[in-house]
């Protein structure tokens, strides 16, 4: 959530900052601002609402050279302390107006600090916790911004990614992070800071990933790094393998639709490098080290939030099905505050698209204290999760810009399937020939997904008829229940429709009381042994006036005389079906959003990376 960008170089900073902020709009925001340092001193411009409001305000100044300077910082804000307004927008400044700060995160003790600073004469103009940072740095400033920041950080509690400039130090931007992402982009005669890679791709693909509590002094021709005590340190550059074109819409109306269509390639990319082709195909997961730790494991615990947790629920079923080992899927925001029972022989799998989800990171750090092995599944190379986990398995999905996750989810599923299958083979429960058959099924999923997408118009027509339903229920059993959870979430996120998911066997234990003629029930039916049960559930809701749709395999006529509408997917193993059955549900959510005149890429109140609780 929120977006930070900073620039120092030979070009005018304001256009670069605006361009970077545009690349970060997907993260969610309600206001924006920039601060530029030039010959006329520090100039701050801010505006409530969409980024275009800020752009309209400052473009005349840029064109007339009234807003000049080759160094600056910018921000898109998602309100936490104080509502959206010009005043509460970032950058925030100190009393003198010489220090400007942009901030992602939450300063938990800001109330106490604010009272102390007010007692020393500081005058606060905003309701934000960020303004406290500017005043606090000012208290410690004695000609060295890095040293002032070090002292200020000792008094700050909470999470932060900060970009800071000072009028008296026009040759550098200071950056620091704790539990909130921040990167440094290294160009030729220019350097940048940003909260995510897309903001800098137009200028460079060489980056530094800041560690927790690490400070960077960013000059136009170099970057210096310090630890929390001010001791210098060295870092290695990383190369971003995907280019700016991957973060563009490429002719699609929205990023969400583009990313739904990128799933065949993303699935193939995630799978290909992990398959060994000899006489019999096998799985190669050297990246997560299948050794005696796995052989001695007593339980698998999967921890995640939101969509990633839904992938974890499917993972739970997969581990029990393939490896016959107890498995739990835990919501990280709950798990971190429980008093869970740990065992050093547990395998902990942590899933996060961004690798920066605050609750997920906290759960991982708690699990680490138990001595368990931590395996991360993430789409973000160099993220906090990837760096802190013992081992990491990347989903090669490429950049995902839309807030609502699609291709990240299905590639996460590909990863958990590969791990579960390999685990089953390690435990002697899946023989080589059977494993090869499952690998063949996984290899077909990319082309199967293409076939589903080729019939998207059927989903589009269905959405045009059903988008105004006031209640939408998704139901299924076993793997289909987990897909129902994700399907309901997608519809909520992008169309603001009240949607719920439940295990179909629970229909008569409460949910059926809500079913009437204003209800749409979408039944996901890919667990072949339970078709009779699902048909009974569908008949029960139809008898109460609900419209019904079924997602099932193309080679069955089981529900032809039962459901109002049927969406057919290619046949695969029942346990692998979630990667296919979720596609029509993603498309339905997307088209419902479009039918309602909404922007599916930027749902209200939501952010791509939830870096605070």
How would you sum up this structure, described in words?
The chain is of the alpha/beta class. The chain has 3 domains: 3-247, Glutamine Phosphoribosylpyrophosphate, subunit 1, domain 1, CATH 3.60.20; 258-454, Glucose-6-phosphate isomerase like protein, domain 1 (Rossmann fold, 3-Layer(aba) Sandwich), CATH 3.40.50.10490; 456-595, 3-Layer(aba) Sandwich (Rossmann fold). 35% of the residues lie in helices and 23% in strands. It contains 18 helices and 27 strands. The strands form 5 sheets. It has an 8-stranded antiparallel β-sheet with strand order 3-2-4-1-10-9-11-15, covered by helices on one side. It has a 7-stranded antiparallel β-sheet with strand order 5-6-7-8-12-13-14. Strand 2 and strand 3 (41-48) form a beta hairpin. Helix 3 (110-119) crosses helix 4, helix 9 runs antiparallel to helix 16 and helix 14 packs parallel to helix 18. It is globular.
CATH architecture of the largest domain: 4-Layer Sandwich
The fourth-level CATH homologous superfamily of the largest domain is: Aminohydrolase, N-terminal nucleophile (Ntn) domain
First-last Cα distance: 11 Å
Strands ordered across the widest β-sheet: 3-2-4-1-10-9-11-15
Mean of pLDDT = 90
Helix tally equals 18
Which secondary-structure class do the elements indicate?
alpha/beta
- What is the CATH class of the largest domain? Alpha Beta
**What amount of the residues lies in strands?**
15-25%
Q: What's the count of strands?
A: 27
Largest sheet: 8 strands, antiparallel
- The total domain count is 3
The CATH topology of the largest domain, please?
Answer: Glutamine Phosphoribosylpyrophosphate, subunit 1, domain 1
């Amino acid at each position: 959530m929120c977006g930070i960008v900073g620039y120092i170089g030979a070009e005018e900073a304001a256009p670069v900052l605006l361009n970077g902020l545009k690349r970060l709009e997907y993260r969610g925001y309600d206001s924006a601002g920039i601060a530029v340092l030039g010959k006329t001193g520090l100039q701050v411009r801010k505006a409530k609402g969409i980024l275009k409001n800020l752009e309209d305000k400052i473009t005349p100044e840029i064109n007339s050279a009234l807003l000049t300077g080759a160094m600056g910082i910018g921000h898109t804000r998602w309100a936490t302390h104080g509502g959206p307004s010009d005043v509460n927008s970032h950058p925030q400044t100190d009393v003198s107006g010489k220090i400007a700060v942009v901030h992602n995160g939450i300063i938990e003790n800001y109330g106490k600090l604010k009272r102390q600073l007010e007692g020393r004469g500081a005058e606060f103009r905003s309701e934000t916790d960020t303004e406290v940072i500017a005043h606090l740095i000012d208290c410690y400033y004695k000609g060295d911004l890095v040293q002032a920041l070090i002292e200020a950080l000792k008094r700050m509690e909470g999470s932060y990614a900060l970009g800071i400039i000072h009028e008296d130090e026009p040759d550098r931007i200071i950056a620091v992070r704790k539990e909130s992402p921040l990167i440094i982009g290294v160009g030729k005669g220019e350097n940048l800071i940003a909260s995510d890679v897309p903001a800098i791709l137009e200028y460079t693909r060489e980056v530094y990933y800041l560690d927790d509590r690490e400070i960077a002094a960013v000059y136009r021709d170099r970057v210096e790094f310090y630890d929390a005590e001010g001791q210098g340190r060295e870092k290695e550059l990383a190369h971003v393998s995907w280019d700016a074109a991957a973060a563009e819409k490429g002719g699609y109306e929205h990023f969400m639709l583009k990313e739904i269509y990128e799933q065949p390639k993303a699935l193939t990319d995630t799978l290909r490098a992990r398959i060994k082709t000899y006489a019999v195909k096998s799985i190669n997961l050297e990246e997560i080290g299948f050794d005696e730790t796995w052989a001695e494991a007593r339980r698998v615990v999967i921890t995640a939030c939101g969509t990633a947790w839904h992938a974890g629920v499917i993972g739970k079923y997969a581990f029990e099905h393939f490896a016959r080992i107890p498995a739990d899927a835990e919501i990280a925001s709950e798990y971190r505050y429980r008093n869970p029972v740990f065992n050093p022989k547990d395998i902990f799998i942590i899933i996060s698209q961004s690798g920066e989800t605050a609750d997920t990171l906290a759960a991982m750090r708690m699990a680490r204290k138990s001595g368990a092995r931590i395996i991360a599944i993430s789409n973000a190379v160099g993220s906090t999760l990837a760096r802190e986990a013992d081992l990491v398995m990347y989903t090669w999905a490429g950049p995902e810009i839309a807030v609502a996750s699609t291709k990240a989810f299905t590639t996460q599923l590909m990863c958990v399937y590969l791990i579960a299958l390999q685990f089953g083979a390690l435990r002697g429960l899946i023989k080589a020939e059977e494993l090869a058959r499952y690998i063949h099924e996984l290899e077909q999923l990319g082309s199967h997904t293409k076939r589903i997408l080729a019939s998207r118009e059927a989903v589009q027509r269905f959405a045009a008829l059903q988008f105004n339903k006031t209640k939408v229920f998704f139901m299924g059993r076993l793997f289909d229940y987990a897909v129902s959870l994700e399907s309901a979430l997608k519809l909520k996120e992008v169309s603001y429709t009240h949607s719920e998911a439940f295990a179909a066997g629970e229909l008569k234990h409460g949910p059926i009381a809500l079913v009437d003629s204003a209800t749409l029930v979408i039944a996901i039916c890919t667990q072949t042994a339970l078709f009779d049960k699902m048909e009974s559930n569908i008949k029960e809701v139809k008898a109460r006036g609900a419209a019904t749709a079924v997602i099932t395999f193309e080679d069955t006529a089981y529900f032809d005389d039962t459901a109002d509408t049927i969406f057919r997917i290619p046949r695969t193993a029942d346990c692998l079906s979630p990667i296919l059955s979720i596609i029509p549900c993603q498309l339905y959510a997307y088209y419902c959003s479009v039918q309602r005149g909404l922007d599916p890429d930027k749902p209200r109140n939501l952010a791509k990376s939830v870096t605070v609780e």
